[in-house]
Amino acid sequence: MGKLSSLFIDRDKKNDDQQNSSAGPSPYRILFVDDERNVLNAIVRIFRKEKYEILTAESADEALETLKKTSVNIVVSDYKMPGMNGADLLRKVKAEYPKTIRIMLTGHADVNAVMGAINDGAVYKFITKPWNDEDLRLTVSLALEQYDLIQENITLKNEQKDQQSKIKQLSRFINIHRSQVGNILVKNGMITGNDLNKALVVQARNNKVLPVIICEMGKISESKLVDAIKKETGINRVSPDEFTVPKALSSLIPKDICQKNHLVPLKKISGKLLIAMADPTDYMKIDDLRFITGIPVEAAIAAPGEIEAKLDEIFGSTDDFETSISEIELTDPTESIEIILDEEDEEQDLQELLRDTTQPPAIRIVNAVIADALRHQASDIHIEPKTKYTMVRYRIDGLLQDKIHIPVNMHMPIISRIKVLCELDISERRKPQDGRVTIKTSTKMVDVRISTLPTIGGEKIVMRILDKNASIKNIRDLGLSDCDCEKVLRFVNHPQGMILTTGPTGSGKTSTLYSLLNEGSTVTKNFTTIEDPVEYYMGMAGQVSVRNKIGLSFPKVFKAILRQDPNVIMLGEIRDFETAEVALHAALTGHLVFSTLHTNGSISSITRLRDMGIKPYVISEALSGIIAQRLVRCICPDCSVDDNNPDKKILHALRLNKTKLDFTPKKGQGCQKCNGTGYSGRTGIFEVFPVEGELKRMIHQHTTESELFEAAKWSGMTTLYDDAISKVKLGRTTFEEVLRVLGVQNSIDIQCSSCGTQLEDKFRFCPQCGKSVTPRCKKCDKHMIYEWKVCPYCGEKRQ
Predict the structure, then answer these.
(1) Is residue 750 within 8 Å of 759, Cβ to Cβ?
(2) Which residues on adjacent β-strands are paired with residue 400?
(3) How many Cβ atoms are within 10 Å of 4's Cβ, its own excluded?
(4) Cβ atoms of residues 30 and 73 within 8 Å
């Protein structure tokens, strides 16, 4: 059991016997400990549909008394409790019941709870509050699976011992040799009687089969030996390497017997088991094999060397069963993170990076933080030094959430640990540094990009998590309207050209590009992607990760790819003139190119490319379309209700009038499934700009951004703002979320003095009531105020 024995608690033998003697399987027992009765009631409700026996305790002392009376599989304890806290309770449970699994619930400010969760292997997992019901249910389920795995491991070990004992008993019979090979060879004059006697003496000493001994003595070659036996007995000659032996078939005869007697099962034919033997003249041994397998045996002859090679192929150097047992023993459930090193880092000592539960606290803290962030499906981890503690925040659904506080004296070791993983200079604390590392957990593999920044309180680290194994969404599930979806599908079906997605960092641009790639992926096309780093795995594409350290930059890789006969190329990001020039010219020469650009809108991407130095005619000819996008949080479907009184200030900021709304917006009240936020998941809002027809001519003629925007709207383009409001109408998101993502929309708008309608500053008359918005002088056309009777600019009387 090794390492696992220090991580789990067990019931005493008496309780085990009582449980095993019961008529049916006893349910798992889970003990929840919390000093707040309403919390215990909430947890009990979570597991009411599960087939667990739930026990509760409102203090550590009560929990220990419960453990004395009954065996428990899992203890889930809160940290802050009167008297003995959760950390001390779990340490006692570990000491007295080493096989019970221990889980801690902790709030983000519980410094000691977090330390107790990561020091000395005190707990199996810790879960931060407020917890997600599914996360808690899944964590308990995985813990019980680990418990069962350990019990099964013990059973398998006992069964293995029994099997080995039976094999030894059988070996007494099957390892008795009654070979006729010696007589056959002497009869045919191939060896002398003296040679046979010497071979028999050797056999009595090492218990090998006679043909192997005679060949090892050099008296006869394997091929001549096989021919002599075949000629004398008429037994068929086989070549074991020509057979594919199923695992189930090879398990019929233990490896030990096969090796000692130079035999190997090959195939089941007509109800008989074909076995290749170095000595098929030992008919009593064939009867023993029939007894062991329970199947009639047909013996064939093969050279000893051929049989040895086949046995190595089937069984390998170690027994599969023993290997599986050792893997179970060495699995430490608290160490669910594995660092994947690049090829040039293979010489670095992995044991220095991944130690057991006695490793320094800094290593365990980093592992615990990353594992917790992945459990919360966070996109970023922020580790920030404060005066009294180090604050760890996760970005979940686009917003940062304060999750864990760590003692300030651990800040420097944690920063150094992360730098070591990313091969950064741990002695350099005055300059920003960037790095990356690949991390493998039990369920996924992620790339993590790390950025350090020196602040007055110490170095701050931000870790960006990129899940390589995340599934690529269908293009129709991104949030595109039917009209915009048709436009985007038209882009994908173009034989050549460039498609750009634009927006700030974290707006889902790469996810959209992969959806477009996946939509058009076929075996008849060559797909290639260039990224820094690769964010998704795509089986149909050849994917290249940029590595600037060795000079593998975007332009260099792109030029190399153009010599690989590509049909579709995805470029992670256009950052400079060289990259933009190569990509756009590739789009002009028969390739379909996908890429991203950091701009605020679709039309501004044209201006950005111009500023890089790209000629207007190249832009107009190469571009097929631009997709601007943002991500907004979706209203939780479990607590969605009508918002009958939306905030007037928010409506005013979004250029809306409450009295003019022709729909009732929705909002989330907050529930357990959304952790009280009212939101669950995210969807996209889009602005799709097709570059075609008159718009191409306007780009070619260097038309201004505002003129292009107006022309695009006249051609039917839905703006980000319009798409966002339509999603509010559909009940998918809220006005507050639209304002958070898009910002204030009416900073230069004016209000009609007659009806109060929000108007754009270019309007001369109100489209609602028809009144003049701002009176002007008929003579000089200057703005006037309603109270003025004479124009102060030219003296003209107002009529």
Answers:
(1) yes
(2) 395
(3) 19
(4) yes
Give the C-alpha separation, 144 to 80, whole Å: 25
Residue 503 near residue 594, CB atoms below 8 Å: no
Nearest Cα neighbor of 720 from 703, 743, 697, 700 is 743
Q: What percent of the chain has pLDDT over 70?
A: 79
Angle made by CA atoms 642, 648, 650, in degrees to the nearest 5? 85
Per-residue three-class SS string for 290-335: HHHHCCCEEEEECCHHHHHHHHHHHHCCCCHHHHHHHHHHHCCCCC
Give the span between the Cα atoms of 784 and 171, in whole angstroms: 113
Q: Where are the alpha helices (DSSP H) in 85-180?
A: 86-96, 111-118, 133-174
pLDDT tens-place string over residues 694-712: 888 888 888 888 888 888 8
Instruction: Quote the CA–CA distance of 641 and 637 in Å, as a whole number.
Output: 9
In eight-state DSSP terms, residue 548 is G
Q: What is the DSSP string of 398-413?
A: TEEEEEEEEEGGGHHH
Phi-psi region of 607 (alpha: psi -120 to 50; beta: other; left: phi over 0): alpha
Our CA angle for 745, 683, 666, nearest 5°, is: 70
Chain centroid to Cα 134, Å, comes to: 17
> What's residue 785's pLDDT?
65
For 299, residues 6+ apart whose C-beta sits below 8 A from its C-beta are 235, 275, 277, 280, 286
Q: Which two tokens stand for residue 400?
A: 């940062």
Identify how many contiguous H helices and E strands the chain contains and give both numbers. 29, 26
As a whole number of Å, the CA-based R_g of the chain is 37
Beta strands in 554-608 (DSSP E): 568-571, 592-597
First-to-final CA distance of the chain: 99
Residue with tokens 């270019």: 762
CA angle 16, 19, 21 (to 5 degrees): 110
Residues in the chain, overall count: 799
* Backbone phi and psi for residue 580, each to the nearest 5 degrees, phi listed first: -65, -40
Give yes or no for a contact between 458 and 412, defined as CB atoms under 8 angstroms apart: yes
Please give the DSSP secondary-structure letter assigned to residue 632.
E
Q: In this predicted model, what pLDDT tens digit does every residue of 237-246 receive, in sequence order?
A: 888 888 888 8
pLDDT in tens, 29-57: 889 888 888 888 888 888 877 778 888 99
Determine the Cα–Cα distance for residues 697 and 654; give it in Å rounded to an integer: 33
Which backbone phi and psi does 12 adopt, to 5 degrees?
-75, 165
Q: Is 693 helix (H, G, I), strand (E, B) or coil?
A: coil
Phi-psi bin for 211: left (phi > 0), alpha (psi -120 to 50), beta? Answer: alpha
Closest CA to 226 of 244, 238, 208, 209: 238
> Are 333 and 124 within 8 A, CB to CB?
yes
- Report the C-alpha gap between 495 and 568 in whole angstroms: 9
Instruction: With beta carbons less than 8 A apart as the criterion, state whether 31 and 74 touch.
Output: yes
Three-state helix/strand/coil letters over 454-499? EECCEEEEEEEEEECCCCCCCHHHCCCCHHHHHHHHHHHCCCCEEE
Contact 527, 542 (CB under 8 A): yes
User: Is a pLDDT exceeding 50 seen at residue 614?
Assistant: yes
Question: In angstroms, rounded to a whole number, what is the distance separating the alpha carbons of residues 26 and 19?
Answer: 7
Give the count of beta carbons closer than 10 Å to the beta carbon of residue 704: 11
Q: State how beta strands 640-642 and 623-635 pair.
A: unpaired
Report field, pTM of the whole predicted structure over 0.90? no
Three-state DSSP at 792 gives: coil
Mean pLDDT score, 493-513? 88
Alpha-carbon distance of 130 to 609, in angstroms, equals 46
Band of residue 635 on the pLDDT scale cut at 50, 70, 90:
very high
Q: Nearest to residue 680, comparing CAs of 691, 672, 688?
A: 672
Q: Residue 340 — pLDDT band, cuts 50, 70, 90? A: very low
DSSP 344: G
- pLDDT given at position 460: 93
